[in-house]
Structure formats: structure tokens, C-alpha cells
Write the C-alpha cells for this entry.
Amino acid sequence: MGAVNDSNQINAKSVPAGLIRLLKAYPDFLDSADENSLYWKDGTVMIYDDGIQGKSHDEMLDDPDIEDMMSQEYEKGSGWSSPPEENFEPGRIRYEPFFKKMYGSDATDVSRNIVSIEWADGSVIQFSSINGAADSLAKAAEELSRLPAEFQKYLKNIGGTFVWRNIAGTDRLSNHSFGTAIDINTKYSDYWQWNRNMTYSNRIPFEIVEVFEKYGFIWGGKWYHYDTMHFEFRPELLQN
């Protein structure tokens, strides 16, 4: 094996950067990696690159490998390119078997690790405890609650967290299915399918986005197919 997760000596010359980021982000589950394989602690092996060349963006969405999932680099912070370039949307491509293995293969399986946390407006919401996701969201919520009053309207009446469902109009599971995504107040949100056009629109203050990113969450407002209410726990995309 080319990289061992319980060591700081990761052989970056032979292991793709995407696999190294996954190893660093999910040490409870992932053991090691080599040039084209990801090794789980239970002995499961997943292939990084399926060898299919020239996939379109839609093909990567519908039938990705792990390489496709890690192929776009999320731009953390305020220095990102706005609006996003066509089909630039890191995190929207998801290799579903990876998340099913980590968080659960169906609603019942996922629900075993769903816990309650206090949200920024004082309400109680549900999130997965796996990989410290709920703890990270609780920390984000506490910091968000301390933002000035003008920001609090965006954090009330949230759109939801855990619900096992497909993304509208697709056969792909939403990351809400794994209890690792939260939609904030839809009243102040923009979504490409609601707007029925690809003209980028956003009303969410970036101060809110920065807090989420600090605790391992990516923002759907940085996607070409924009979804500004949506934040999901994806620490692998925020690794240096």
C-alpha cells in the first residue's frame, strides 16, 4: 500500500492528491491508499479511477468514480470566482457507494447515528454523529448565533437536515439522506431549479458561509448549479 493513514509519512508522489485528502478527512474509516485504490479499515477496497475517459459533466454526476468526485477543487474563503464557471461545482459530484458505506445504506441504517443538536436559533435539529459531523455543526451553530442581529433571519426556519431522498429530477441521493447536509432559511435562498435559469443569484451573506467553511462545510452557492441554502459536511474538500 502506498499511503498509511496512521502515519504522517504519506507518499504524495505515488498517491493521488484526492486520495490523500480523503485519508486526512476520514481517519476513523480509511486506512491507506496507493496509486489507484482506497483501503478501508474493514478491508474494503474502492477503485479511485475507473479508467473511463472523456466523461461529460452529466456523466460524472450520474456515474462517477472517486477521481471524478475529487476532480474539482473547492475554493474556500472570499477569494473564489463569482459567479462560478459553467459546471464548476466541487462537491456536487458524489461517489454514492463511498457515502453509503460511511454513513449508512438506507434510512434506517443512517438513523442509528442521527443525534439532536441545538441550532443557532435555539431550535433542535437532527444530524449524523459520524466523523464528528454533528459536533462540527453544533460549533458552527454556536458561532453563527453570535453574528450580529441582521444575519439571524437567514438562520431561522431552516429548510431541513436529515431526510432520505433523491435530488429532485434525478436518481441520485441527496447528502441530506446521510444526515450531513443542512438547508438554511429558504425565504432568502436561491436555487437554480426554482429560478428556472442559470443566471447566478445569491442573497446569503458571506459571513455565514465563512463560519460554515471553518467547520468543514461546503456551500452550494459556489456551484454553477447554485443552491445557496445548502451546506454539507465535506471536510475532504477543505483540506489544504
